[in-house]
Structure formats: structure tokens, C-alpha cells
């Protein structure tokens, strides 16, 4: 653990060989704040697309000669603990216990079997005593940074800037140690900003061709895209999958079954070498690929595809804003059937009730009366005669005083065109 503290920039405080700090009689609070800030935040000049964002893993091989590997681990859940900072013995012991627990991530829900009860602080022990649960312990913070760090560290610099989020140094999964206290350097509404930034980043993957602004704030997919707790499991699943392909550290451990105290074997787990650590993703290209995988994983962890299909099939007009989008056009095409939904034709029948078209029995007299108001006098008379049972063009011509049925035929074509336009707009 000492090596990790050095990587966080703390060596100069504790090691007299670094004369630049120990020459001063004491460090002021502002000096410590500056050190913590530089340990947590990264200057904009160091956020090139090739190197940022960045998520890394520390190998369990630094602490363990062998690891327990669950063959079918349960989904990972995050449990927050109250964790102090500083060099007090109790604080350091708890930090060490959390680091060991989390670094055994490959054990999954069998992790509690690795530790004796007296190795775990009381709050960790209570969780372990629940049974075989796959939990990661992270510090409890106002911002919930450590819970949502896997999401934050997938976002591009441009997205962070758009939503006023700071450039945090490389994230680490699983959590090992908190040496800075992130709440001091994050905005008070960090969770809300992160939700908006995350939604912005993944939206085009969820609803291609239609911008986020084309939908109302309470549209179901838009709300789902802001739900960080929905997206944390698939991102975690992707991280586990990536790390599962890391090579092993050669500790000379041959895979073998785990024998329990009663002589039986632990089903579903084996002993093996720890895996190497290193970058989980580094740079925008890697992060974008991991983000794509997370969308796919969300179908496994949260039935994402079924949710999207259900929402698309049951949209209502209130789901959209005033802005045009392909999604809105598809919705309106289905709702109003822009391709003519009524084929209007007049059929001449003998000794039967008049028929205007295939929809007449459904539409009924009310629509006919509304449509009549759009016609001039002669055309209205023709429709009235058709509706009253006079279906022969010759009879209509005779009743209206035309010399032959030609004039009636022309007027019927006019009526048919108006009817098509009218019923298509219903």
C-alpha cells in the first residue's frame, strides 16, 4: 500500500529523502489542499484524446499470491461505508480491509469466504454475514463520486466541459484507497451534472437520428438515459469482462478446486494466479468502444432492448417536444397514417343501401355530414342523393336536370378528390 500512496504524490510528505517539503517546519492547510487537488484533478493540457479519459486497475498480485476465482459471479453491487481519512490506526486498518476485499474482485460472491471475521471492520462484517453477495465497498460521499466513477471516466473531455464537470485524474476499478476526499473538488450538483452528461453521451446510441432536445423531459427513454443507477451495472459488467482478458501474474499457482473445512469442495470457484493490472481503457477511442459494449451489456443487466421496443411501440404525443425528429415523424406516420388511410370510391349498386367506400359502416353519418360542409351546392346534392339510395348516375343527372350523366361523372371525381383529402386529415 505504501507504493500506492507514493503514486498519489504523498511520498514527499512522509519521506525525509524528499528535501523540498521537509525543509519547511510545517505544511499549511492551503498547501495540503493544493497537493490533494493536484492528486485528484488533472490540468486541461494533460487531457488529450489519446490519453483521456482513463480507467485503470491495480493487480491483486501486489497483496496476494493466489486468488479465488468465481466461475459464474453474481452481478456486482456497490455498498457505501463511512471512511475517515488520515493516519490513525483504525482508519488505516479499515482502508486496508476495503482494499483487500475489493482487489479480490474475481472471487465475486464468494469473497467473504476468504476473510476471517476479525479481519473485517464491523460494518463490513455485517454485510459479509448476509451470505454470498458480490459487493464492492466504496466510501460514502455527498457526491457519490466513487459509486459513479466508472461512468464519469467514460466521458470525453468535450462532454465534461459542456456540463461543467472537472477533469478528474485516472479512475480506478475496483476502489482501493481514498487519499483526497473528492467532495471538495466536485460541484454540489455533481450527480445531476453527471446524469445530464451521461445522457448526452449515450443518447445517439439509444435513439439514432433524433436529438435529445426533440423529446420532452419526462419521455421514458430520456429519463432512463439519465438514470445512473441503471447504467452502473452494465458498465461494471464491461469492466469485469475486459479485466477477465488480462494475463495472469505467474505466481506458480495451478488452477485447482477449493476444499472447505468440512472436506467438501466449493462448487463454482477455483484457486488461481492473480491477474495483471493496467489500463482498462485509455483515450477517447477506447472509452467509446467500452461505451458501445455497455449499451449491449445493458440488455443483459436491465433488459434495455425490451424497454426501448416497448417505449417505441407505445409513444404518445406528449413524449415529443416541438422540435422535428425522425422519431416524431415515424410516430405521426403511424398515428395519422400519412399514406392515405381511406380509399374513396363510389359504387353503383341496385336494390341495396348506398355505399360510399370501405369505411362507411365505421365512419357513419356524422362524418358524412361534416364532409358535406366542404362541398358546393350541386356537389352536396349529389352526395345527398347517393346517401338516400339514388346510386345511378343517369338517375342523378335526370333529378338535377342535366342533359346526360357526363356532368355527374365529372362532379363525382371532384367529390372523390375532396373526400380523399378530408379523410386523410382525420
The pLDDT mean sits at: 80
- How much of the sequence lies in strands comes to 5-15%
Strand arrangement across the biggest beta sheet: 5-1-8
Shape: elongated
Question: What's the gyration radius in Å?
Answer: 35 Å
- The structural domain count equals 2
Describe this structure as you would to a colleague.
This protein is mainly alpha-helical and 426 residues long. It folds into two domains: 41-319, no CATH class; 360-424, Arc Repressor Mutant, subunit A (Orthogonal Bundle), CATH 1.10.10. Helix content is 45%, strand content 9%. The protein has helices spanning 2-7, 11-14, 19-22, 29-40, 89-103, 122-128, 145-152, 157-162, 190-206, 220-225, 228-244, 284-302, 304-313, 326-336, 360-372, 377-387, 393-400, 406-424; strands at 54-57, 67-70, 77-81, 135-139, 171-172, 256-259, 265-272, 278-282. The strands form three sheets. Strands 5-1-8 form a three-stranded mixed β-sheet. The longest helix is centred in the last third of the chain and has 19 residues, at 284-302. It is elongated and about 110 Å long. The termini are far apart. Mean pLDDT is 80; it is low at 1-25 and 338-367.
Amino acid at each position: 500500500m505504501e507504493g500506492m500512496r507514493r503514486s498519489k504524490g504523498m511520498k514527499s510528505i512522509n519521506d525525509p529523502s524528499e528535501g523540498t517539503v521537509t525543509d519547511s517546519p510545517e505544511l499549511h492547510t492551503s498547501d495540503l489542499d493544493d497537493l490533494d487537488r493536484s492528486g485528484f484533478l488533472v490540468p486541461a493540457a494533460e487531457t488529450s484524446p489519446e490519453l483521456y479519459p482513463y480507467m485503470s486497475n491495480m493487480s491483486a498480485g501486489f497483496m496476494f499470491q493466489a486468488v479465488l476465482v468465481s466461475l459464474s459471479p453474481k452481478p456486482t453491487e456497490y455498498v457505501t461505508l463511512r471512511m475517515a481519512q488520515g493516519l490513525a490506526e483504525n482508519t488505516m486498518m479499515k482502508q486496508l480491509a476495503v482494499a483487500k476485499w475489493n482487489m479480490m474482485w474475481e472471487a465475486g460472491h464468494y469473497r467473504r469466504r476468504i476473510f476471517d471475521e476479525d479481519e473485517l471492520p464491523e460494518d463490513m462484517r455485517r454485510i459479509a454475514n448476509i451470505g454470498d453477495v458480490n459487493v464492492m465497498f466504496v466510501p460514502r460521499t455527498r457526491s457519490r463520486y466513487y459509486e459513479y466513477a466508472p461512468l464519469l471516466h467514460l466521458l470525453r473531455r468535450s462532454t465534461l466541459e459542456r456540463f461543467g464537470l472537472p477533469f478528474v485524474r485516472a479512475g480506478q476499478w475496483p476502489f482501493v484507497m481514498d487519499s483526497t476526499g473528492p467532495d471538495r473538488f466536485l460541484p454540489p450538483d455533481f450527480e445531476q451534472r453527471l446524469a445530464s452528461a451521461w445522457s448526452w453521451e449515450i443518447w445517439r446510441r439509444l435513439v439514432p437520428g433524433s436529438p435529445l432536445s426533440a423529446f420532452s423531459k419526462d419521455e421514458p427513454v430520456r429519463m432512463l438515459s439519465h438514470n445512473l443507477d441503471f447504467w452502473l451495472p452494465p458498465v461494471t459488467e464491461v469492466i469485469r469482462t475486459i479485466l477477465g482478458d488480462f494475463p495472469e501474474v505467474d505466481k506458480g499457482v495451478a488452477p485447482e478446486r477449493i476444499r472447505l473445512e468440512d472436506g467438501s469442495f466449493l462448487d463454482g470457484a477455483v484457486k488461481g494466479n492473480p491477474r495483471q493490472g493496467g489500463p482498462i481503457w485509455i483515450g477517447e477511442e477506447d472509452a467509446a468502444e467500452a461505451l458501445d459494449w455497455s449499451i449491449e451489456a445493458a440488455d443483459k443487466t436491465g433488459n434495455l432492448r425490451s424497454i426501448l421496443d416497448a417505449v417505441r411501440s407505445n409513444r404518445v404525443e406528449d413524449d415529443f417536444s416541438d422540435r422535428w425528429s425522425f422519431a416524431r415523424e415515424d410516430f405521426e406516420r403511424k398515428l395519422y397514417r400519412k399514406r392515405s388511410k381511406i380509399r374513396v370510391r363510389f359504387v353503383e349498386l341496385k336494390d341495396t343501401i348506398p355505399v360510399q367506400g370501405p369505411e362507411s359502416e365505421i365512419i357513419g353519418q356524422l362524418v358524412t355530414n361534416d364532409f358535406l360542409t366542404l362541398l358546393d351546392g350541386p356537389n352536396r346534392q349529389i352526395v345527398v342523393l347517393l346517401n338516400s339510395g339514388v346510386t345511378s348516375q343517369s338517375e342523378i343527372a335526370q333529378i338535377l336536370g342535366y342533359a346526360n350523366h357526363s356532368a355527374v361523372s365529372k362532379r363525382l371525381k371532384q367529390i372523390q378528390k375532396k373526400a380523399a383529402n378530408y379523410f386523410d386529415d382525420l
